[in-house]
Prior knowledge:
The complex is a heterodimer of chains A (297) and B (486).
Chain A: E1 13-18, E2 21-24, E3 28-29, H1 30-49, H2 69-93, H3 103-125, H4 149-158, H5 185-198, H6 205-218, H7 220-223, H8 249-258, H9 280-291
Chain B: E1 14-15, H1 28-46, E2 63-66, E3 71-74, E4 77-79, H2 85-105, H3 108-113, H4 115-131, H5 134-142, H6 147-173, H7 178-187, H8 192-212, H9 214-220, H10 223-230, E5 236-240, H11 242-245, H12 269-273, H13 293-304, E6 312-316, H14 319-324, H15 332-336, H16 339-361, E7 366-371, E8 378-379, E9 385-395, E10 401-409, H17 412-417, E11 418-422, E12 429-432, E13 436-446, H18 451-454, E14 457-467, E15 473-482
Antiparallel strand pairs in B: 2-3, 3-4, 5-6, 7-9, 8-9, 9-13, 10-12, 10-14, 11-13, 14-15
Helix pairs in contact in B: 2-16, 4-6, 4-8, 6-8
Amino acid sequence: MSKKPTTKKEVQTTGHQWDGIEELNTPLPRWWLWTFYATIIWGVAYSIAMPAWPIFASGATPGLLGSSTRADVEKDIAKFAEMNKAVEEKLVATDLTAIAADPELVTYTRNAGAAVFRTWCAQCHGAGAGGNTGFPSLLDGDWLHGGAIETIYTNVKHGIRDPLDPDTLLVANMPAHLTDELLEPAQIDEVVQYVLQISGQPADEVKATAGQQIFAENCVSCHGEDAKGLVEMGAPNLTDGIWLYGGDVATLTSTIQYGRGGVMPSWSWAADGAKPRLSEAQIRAVASYVHSLGGGQ
Amino acid sequence: MSANQPSPDDAPLYFAREPIFPRRISGKFRSLKWVLMALMLGIYYITPWIRWDRGAALPDQAVLLDLGNRRFFFFGLEIWPHEFYFVAGLLIMAGLGLFLFTSALGRVWCGYACPQTVWTDLYILVERWVEGDRNNRIRLHRQAWNAEKIRKRLIKWGLWLFIGLATGGAWVFYFTDAPTLLSDLLTGDASPIAYTTIAIATATTFAFGGFAREQMCIYACPWPRIQAAMMDEDTITIAYREWRGEPRGKLQKGEKLAEGQGDCIDCMACVNVCPMGIDIRNGQQLECITCGLCIDACNEMMDKIGKPRGLVGYMALKDEAHERAGNKVTNIWTHVLRPRTLLYFTLWAGFGVALVVALFLRSPLDFNVTPSRDPLFVTQSDGTIRNIYTLRIRNKHGSEETFRISATTADDAETRALKLTLEGVEGDTITVPADQLYNQRLYLDAGPASDLAAAKRTGIMIWVEQVGEDEPVSDKADTVFNGKGK
Ligand code: SF4
Ligand code: SF4
């Protein structure tokens, strides 16, 4: 094809050729160059205006505009705390049993309570509140210390067996029957068989009968005559399928031998001069959330 | 390296934009472009003002991208965020459509439909109206700044700015209720985002349509690069029939073309009308957006000198050699209809059909059920096994709706053993506000003696029935019940 450029300057080539294909040497448009300079100026100005240059051991230059993402986050948190203030005040002023009747509080406690739960409670009780060995499930109808909203609230607020809080719920520990020489190993073996029997598991009849006697003498004060547990003592029901530590022979034996005494921290406790671990509104929110999970009474 | 090549080091690194002053032309393609421009600008400006009744709780704007509430309304359609695949499907269709058109007709998109082309065309129209045609504009460009130049430039820029403002203004109307936004904009009550968006869109329209023009196509747009890969020897494009035109030569008024002289009389009409400032006679060029204006210009000339039209015209790349060999001009359709374009068309149409089918298969009831994974089940003190589910239900109606929930298994006796409780709700119905996604926790309890409690997991179904005056609609979601079994 004959090239007869009539209007434009001849396109230059670099002189390089590969397989007959020439490498053109088209100059850049000038505005492109300006754009390039503009980005340089922008870059310099930006690094002066915003935090940019690293300084040894002390972060970076703060920048003239004083921008800080950390401060932005703090501002955001403060903003939302401000927005939540009214509903939190209402929550603190409302009777615990009346929360469920107020749609605004229900929405708030379901969300804020779930957030508190996932942050502070999930480590022991599980993200879904299903519990773990030694940490009760909060979803079922079986409560060691009672499942009414006020009880849940008090237990969250002051904890259980928390030495830091004078108002904590102080229930007796499960004694260490072997270590403290309360029972002989053989007797422990028999009680274990009895517990297996009353919880509907296969057991040695002879030992269980002997165990029943030992149980009546040593255990009923906490677990009750019928072994169904006593909420006031924090002692679990031994006849159902729910076990805090486990209902098999090995776990039962170990429980009786060395005792148990789980601790729930007090969430209203505060270090000297510091804010309490959780605010009153947070405690109420999480108590209400836990109460709503299906087991609340 | 040939001897007469300048050393690359001598070449300039950059050059200034050469201003282009496209001359006015009329003809078939120019008329087509006017019609298309009116059509497309009309669609763009008018669409946000079309109303469409969807009930009290939903907006009545026919086309609305409600980003705040994450809804997309298109006439009778409402797309929720989880149905974004419809938009993805439309984008795929747009992509395939572009392939189809490019492989068949080259850069028709660029020449007729691209906003860059349409708005530049509009801006040139204004420019011509204020400053006159090509020669007047060149004179104005060269002349020193005086009262006339200042006046004309200010009028032109003012009109451009107004068009830019209208363009940016129309853009934001797609994202919120147009009449409300318009009055808010006028009273200064609209959101800063609206003003910023308008400002940016105004500035870009003004700069791209008024000043950058062909620079956008040559340096900023990826499409000219892609098109090279999409075109082949059969692609219809705009070209110069060199075999007919060369050797070119000037023709004085009243003279006849000399023997052996080509039809091209080197009048520069095709170059002068070109909005990209190129000479189509140099062959295929990256700059050419196939706008067709050079065809109109050349045809006008051929009519004047009594030669057949089509010295510059639509043709396939391989036609040049074909016609040079003395063959007749090939029918356009033999180029357009070929396996490649038919394949693109099939794919494109396939996606279209699939989308329409998917649209009709959308269940009027939209919900899903997720069983809790932590814990899988809860043992109650009496040995009852409880499973927890989250039901997410969407009310796609413009009014509040009530839904009845129930659960079944394959076995009737087991179904009777299953007890359903809705958290915080008495009874088995929930009421969902209009146009909302609603979460409801469900508890399913299976008695200690039931197979459900004993098995590891059993397939069950959760049914949702919309309770209403009309025909009740119901649908089920398959899920599982986890039991104690190992
Ligand atoms: S090159 Fe790009 S910007 Fe120019 S007309 Fe084509 S698609 Fe539009
Ligand atoms: S060469 Fe012709 S078709 Fe291509 S951009 Fe210029 S006028 Fe339009």
